[in-house]
Amino acid sequence: MRLYHNMMSMNLYKTYKDKLVEQSGALNRISTGSKINSAKDNPNKIGQSELMRMQIRGLQFAQRNLQDGSSMMQTVDGALGGVSDSLTRMKELVIASGNAAYTDEERSALAKEFEALKGTINDAAKNTEFNGVKLLDCKNPGESFDLSAGANVGEKITIPLNNITTDALKDENGNSLTDVDLLDSSKVGQNIKTIDDAIKNINNIRSKYGAIQGRLDSAAENAETTALTMQGADSRVRDADIATEMINFSKANILVEASTAMMAQSNKFPQDVLRILERMK
């Protein structure tokens, strides 16, 4: 008489191993909160998720960059506002210097205040910078720099550089604020023209920077929205459904325990057969 392999026990052992793997996988997903913990879990999905995460990091970096740029524009606008106030006061001084009733001493006092205001303008120009780049004291007309506005190549916003020093602010005849002379009452008309053109130049620069700040704020908001959308998509790819995984773990745990008990019973079968054969001798 031939005793064959205990196939029932072997099948139960296979079931036991399979359910043990399922139980371990469910527990791992519950503990990590992720249904993709290694490339083998889902090769296609993990590649998709990694690409999305790269895009998300790029968008988050761009958002911070754009917010810094917007803060920079606010700083520039504050500096230009101060320059505009100084120019308004300078115009008042020029008009006052044309008063024939003023003595030379009084006119000299006006000139001293005018010079102090010129120094204020030059200080604003020299001290307004971003990452070491002087925004209002550029020596090369037409220069600019770019801020990254997204996660892809070519997504950028260009920031123009300007020069608002008293040497650079000139009227249409080429006269600068440095050329303004309050001690010569005959130049009042020319001086007013020079300052009026300087005020126009400052207002134009403020207007351009204001439009750029609007673009920076809009781009930062768009980068944030896109990053949040992609984070949601990545979450759907990666994140585990904890409730479902708890059910899967419980089911696998029950089957593991059942398989263990059934294997114990099936392993007794060959022993029972041997005892019967022993009695038949």
UniProtKB/TrEMBL annotation:
* Record carries keyword Methyltransferase: no
As for family, the record states: Belongs to the bacterial flagellin family.
Per UniProt, the keywords (alphabetical) are: Bacterial flagellum, Cell projection, Cilium, Flagellum, Secreted
Q: Which PANTHER family match?
A: FLAGELLIN
> One GO MF term, please?
structural molecule activity
The Flagellin C-terminal domain covers 192-277
Annotated Flagellin N-terminal domain ranges read 5-138
User: Cellular component terms, GO, for this chain's entry?
Assistant: bacterial-type flagellum; extracellular region
Q: Where in the cell is it found?
A: Secreted; Bacterial flagellum
- A Pfam family this chain is assigned to: Flagellin_C
Describe the task this protein carries out: Flagellin is the subunit protein which polymerizes to form the filaments of bacterial flagella.
Q: What is this protein called?
A: Flagellin
Give the highest taxon in the source lineage. Bacteria
